[in-house]
Amino acid sequence: MFGIDWLDPHTLIRDYGNIAVFITCIIVYVETGLLVGFFLPGDSLLFLIGLFLASPQAPMPLWLACILISTSAWLGDQTGYWIGRKAGPAVFNKPDSKLFSHRNVEATERFFAKYGSKAIIVAHFVPVMRTFVPVAAGVGKMPYPQFLRLNFIAVIVWGSGVTTLGYFLGGVPFVNEHVELVTLSFIVLSFIPIALELLKVWRERRASK
Prior knowledge:
It is found in: Cell membrane. Residues 40-167 form the VTT domain. The protein is an all-alpha fold and 209 residues long. The chain has one domain (4-208). Helices cover 72% and strands 0% of the residues. It has ten helices and no strands. Helix 3 runs antiparallel to helix 10. The longest helix is centred in the C-terminal third of the chain and has 30 residues, at 179-208. It is globular and about 55 Å long.
């Protein structure tokens, strides 16, 4: 369970079956609540969980899984916000490592500048941003009632929306026959926004030298 393979969504569902939803909830919490969780497979995992729930082997109804996943995302975001609120800017003032990059911080700043408070919602559909944006909201001392309201919308739309999308696409023959291709396409599309933001950061750094 502690090898890297268990982070692969296909492996998770194949090997853990009935408890895959609960493991997904843990992964979602870590990805959205802790700065070290940005590499976790959030979008693709929710999509595949939706496909799994559409099968006869589903361990629980879709509505229950959506509640559990959305609640995990909400708790994770609250954790991230309060880490940023209590630690302040110092939380981003640590050296680059495999689990932390200042390029991600700069991309987050650009993301906030582009979307404003709506970044709380949009970030959930962008890998890396859904990890850093709640923390940045806390660091920037976004009023908690405002964060709470936007975050509630975000976790419902993302946690329930992506899972439900997978559930209904599970009834499409092409999707069932090409699960890996569809999932890979989903991952690539979700990474395009953050890739563009990081590219802009890289170009600005080169231009400033």
